[in-house]
Amino acid sequence: MTDVRVLIVDDHPTFRAGLRAILDGRHGIVVVDEADDGESAVAAAARCAPDVVVMDLAMPGLDGVAATRRIAGGPDSVKVLVLTMNDTDQALHAVLRAGARGYVLKDASADEIRSAVLAVAEGRAIFGTGVSERLLRSFAGQGPGQALPYPELTPREREVLHLVADGLDNTVIATRLHLSAKTVRNYVSALLDKLGAASRAAVVAKAREAGFGGPARSDRYFRP
């Protein structure tokens, strides 16, 4: 049986070392590289072609959600297992939309983490203890029209997206929101990445399809 090649992504070196210790050489798993932020993870995934990326979420620069989207959506379709301390529904939904195949919390046992890596490598979706139950409850309690579009966006990003969907340019948006033009450009760049859009026009199309834009904002787009 071919070893499962794993890339570890976490900004804490002590945690990476501990994770390597429980994975490398165990049950047919080999750790081929490590990365400490999202950009490094994307580069490492392209360089070493892992079977599974074990991905943290909260990292400097490109976060785990955006990195997952770029890696899982790449030409090699590398599988991503999220390993995080973040147990919120918003984070869970965001990484699933980004293409993650599994979600496990960092307080999981070594055996649970190894089993999750192997399951994801086999193409199965895997959720850690407590996560799957919460996911089912979340979808079971979600009535028509209650889904929050693009849950990975911050409230300010939603506000910018609404104005972009209205067709306003960066200068007008900056004036409306009392921001600098550079700050608005940064928000638009983040929206391109988080919506998986190749251009501003594509962002507008995706936003309007999701219900952004128009004469009035809906409060559901601005829930914290």
Concise synopsis of the structure shown:
The protein is of the alpha/beta class.
Q: Your description of this structure?
A:
The protein is built from ten helices and six strands. It has 224 residues and is an alpha/beta fold. The chain has two domains: 4-140, 3-Layer(aba) Sandwich (Rossmann fold); 155-222, Orthogonal Bundle (Arc Repressor Mutant, subunit A), CATH 1.10.10.10. Helix 5 (110-121) links the parallel strand 5 (102-105) and strand 6 (126-127). Helix 7 crosses helix 10 (200-209) and helix 8 (170-177) crosses helix 9 (181-194). Mean pLDDT is 84; it is low at 215-224.
Fraction of helical residues: 40-55%
Reported CATH architecture of the largest domain: 3-Layer(aba) Sandwich
Termini gap: 47 Å
| CATH fold label of the largest domain | Rossmann fold
Classification by helices and strands:
alpha/beta
Query: What is the top-level CATH class of the largest domain?
Result: Alpha Beta
Spatial strand arrangement across the major sheet = 2-1-3-4-5-6
The number of strands is 6
- The CATH superfamily of the largest domain turns out to be Response regulator
Mean pLDDT: 84
**Shape, principal axes of CA atoms:** elongated
Total helical elements? 10
Strand percentage: 5-15%
